[in-house]
Write a structure and sequence with these properties.
With 406 residues, this protein is α+β, with helices and mostly antiparallel strands. The protein folds into 2 domains: 222 residues, Rossmann fold (3-Layer(aba) Sandwich), CATH 3.40.50.300; 161 residues, Hypothetical Protein Pfu-838710-001, CATH 2.40.320. The protein is 29% helix and 32% strand. The chain has an 8-stranded antiparallel β-barrel, surrounded by 4 helices. The chain has a 6-stranded parallel β-sheet with strand order 1-8-7-2-6-3, with helices on both faces. The protein is elongated, with a radius of gyration of 25 Å. The chain starts with 7 loop residues before the first strand and ends in a 12-residue tail after the last strand.
């Protein structure tokens, strides 16, 4: 039975570039949780711990550190008790999967009670590929049972828990982690992923998940940091930039005659929990459609080369206002950009914003593509600079401070 009379509040330290032992830091902070679990072991034998919080709060990544010293642990994921997209659509008119009604919380509660008695259960399984239930499996009881998901602190389950942990994060942290984490459903498009956050994850976190915090006796703050993004982002955009006067545009069109002009409108957003160097922006292009961009802290390499760990979601004609999910509008830039795609994924742009002109050579790549595309991009950039040196200036910039281009 949970006791809320003495709530423990802990905070996971921010991830830093080059941190020597991140796991040890997290284990140190979460040591009081393991101490409490060990005390319960000595007094009652079987212990049930609930680890709750919204989607992309870090439940899965923190789980091993929270319980690292406690062996023979059974993970009872709430995902396996999901009723699936088809039944959810019949209830709500379209799939939701972010409310308690879409999980068999009463069945999970009965299973927890059975496991505490030492009984074997037949647990349902869930497929993220089909987003539907996928059979059953026999599960043996264990000395430590960890119930993980969005609603393990639900009123139907909380009375069965011996310790309830709510992982708390701000809106920016949940949004960023959800955007950068690998897709669980390979069939999900960029647009569907963003739509799911705006229409489901964000509103139902505040209306249904966050209220379960009241049933926790441990609150664990887990904010996002850009260094975490650098570790998880699999793509990076490399770029080299030059500024100049109106002659720069003339030279650009001479060097890249296939470039075509189009209007652009970039809206940059910020959040109280954003750190220096993070970029969140909605990018509108007249001809190539709209994109949602998240970029972590830029990494200056050498000779004007910049690498930006980033992720970009292609949204077609759809447009989202990030103020609807907790952000504040910071700055708007609009103008004309001349764009052309060069060989092997290299892109050349010339931005005109009022009387300011900027040429940008870039390559967006991942894994083995990166070295080759970056090499080609640098060749194009150096060739342009050598040919038009009198009218160009190489620049080093921070996206947060120089947001007139992407």
């Amino acid at each position: 039975m949970l006791h809320q009379s003495s709530v423990i509040e802990l905070a996971v330290p921010p991830c830093h570039d080059g941190a020597p032992d991140r796991i040890s830091e997290v284990e140190s902070v979460t040591q009081p949780i393991r101490q409490r679990i060990n005390e319960l072991f000595r007094s009652q034998g079987i212990v049930v711990a609930g680890i709750g919080g919204g989607s992309a709060t870090g439940k899965t990544s923190l789980f091993p550190q929270i319980l690292s010293n406690n062996h023979d642990c059974l993970l009872l994921s709430q995902d396996d008790y999901c009723i699936g997209s088809e039944r959810s659509a019949r209830i709500h008119g379209k799939p939701n999967l972010h409310v308690p009604e879409d999980y068999q919380v009463d069945l999970q509660a009965r299973h927890i009670a059975s496991l505490k008695k030492g009984e074997i259960i037949s647990k349902p399984k869930y497929s993220f590929k089909t987003r539907e239930p996928d059979g059953f499996e026999s599960v043996q009881p264990s000395p430590l049972i960890a119930v993980e998901g969005e609603f393990p602190l639900h009123d139907a389950i909380a009375p069965l828990l011996d310790i309830g942990i709510f992982i708390e994060t701000d809106d920016h942290s949940r949004f960023t982690r959800r955007m950068i984490r690998p897709r669980r459903n390979p069939q999900q498009t960029d647009l569907h992923r963003v739509l799911e956050y705006f229409s489901l994850s964000f509103p139902f976190y505040h209306s249904h998940v966050l209220p379960t915090r009241k049933n926790a006796n441990v609150i664990l703050a887990n904010p996002y940091s850009p260094a975490e993004g650098n570790d998880r982002l699999e793509t990076a955009e490399s770029e080299m930039d030059f500024t100049g006067d109106g002659l720069l545009l003339v030279n650009f069109c001479s060097a890249f005659p296939s470039a075509l002009p189009q209007q652009f409108h970039y809206t940059y957003y910020t959040h109280p929990c954003c750190t220096a160097g993070e970029v969140v922006a909605m990018l509108q292009h007249e001809k190539i459609g709209n994109e949602l961009l998240y970029a972590s802290r830029s990494q200056h390499v050498c000779d004007g080369l910049i690498r930006n760990p980033s992720v970009c979601f292609r949204l077609g004609d759809n447009l989202f206002n990030l103020q609807d999910v907790g952000y504040c509008r910071k700055q708007v830039q609009e103008g004309v950009v001349w764009t052309t795609c060069l060989d092997n994924g290299v892109r050349a742009d010339c931005y005109a914003v009022r009387d300011q002109y900027r040429v940008r050579l870039s390559a967006y790549s991942a894994g083995k593509q990166s070295v080759n595309r970056e090499r080609l991009m640098r060749q194009h950039a150096h060739s342009f600079r050598e040919k038009f040196a009198p009218t160009t200036t190489s620049i080093h910039h921070d996206w947060q401070q120089e947001p007139c281009h992407r």
